[in-house]
Amino acid sequence: MPAIELDGLTFQYRGESEPAIDDVSLTVERGEFLGIAGETGVGKTTLLKSICGIIPFQEAGTREGSVVVDSKRVIDAESVDQLAPTVSMILQNPESQLFNLRVFDEIIWGPENLEMDREEIVRRGEEAMELFGLEGFGDRITYNLSGGEKQKVAIASVYAMNPDIILLDEPTSQLDPIGTEMVFDAIDRLVDEGVTIVMVEHKIEELAEYADRIALLEDGSVTRLDETRSFFTDTTVEHARPQVTQLGMQLNETGVADVDVPLTQDEAVVEYDALLGEP
Ligand SMILES: Nc1ncnc2c1ncn2[C@@H]1O[C@H](COP(=O)(O)OP(=O)(O)O)[C@@H](O)[C@H]1O
Ligand SMILES: [Mg+2]
User: CATH topology for 1-86+163-233?
Assistant: First the structure.
């Protein structure tokens, strides 16, 4: 039983002349990390919103096809909130997702609404703060946080609700390399725990390292959907690659060397050290 099944999903925003996503079909397995790549305006955010129920419950437009999450049709739910314990989305702009004055209240807001046991709520909230490097932030005013800190709070508050499926829309866009690493490490732990992740992300190095598969969106359609290594090493995929991958492919293509094309920094160190005959 897959975590997410999209079948012929099309959505056109009210007032627009063309659909933002057009006939998208794809399946995401439980515990999988699916990365979504693509240029601005191709429909990535629209796709995520359709999975968590923001579409159709909070956006006007026409929708065709079906979205089944955790074996239930999204359209049969009553609201986005009702779906939240199953599937929750971290929006591209975290500001629009923060409602509480103080960080800890924000983080436990979801679990409180789910009426989880109080001790469990506090435990989960503290765990979320630690996981996302927010220790000591509990009493800070959410509005005064930096963009990156807001992103971490938004992710931590979704984590605290313990959903089966988490959708993230460019979650590290305002984070520095250390913050980015922290978020990806935390996501990696969630994947280990069996949580399903769908993430829109422009940082290809991180996608290459952590995602199981990558879907490429172009003009509202999924034009490629491949296991991550195949996606980044296939010469017919026209998308940016990690630098180490690009280098390996060029070395092979030009006949300068014959390397196992690396996908990550760690693989690159091993492969290129061997090539250079490290003493
Ligand atoms: N609320 C909206 N109303 C009308 N058109 C929208 C709305 N949100 C997005 N769009 C349009 O839908 C298309 C896809 O947008 P979006 O899903 O945000 O793409 P991406 O996340 O890949 O940048 C774009 O042409 C965008 O202008
Ligand atoms: Mg977007």
Answer: Rossmann fold (3.40.50)
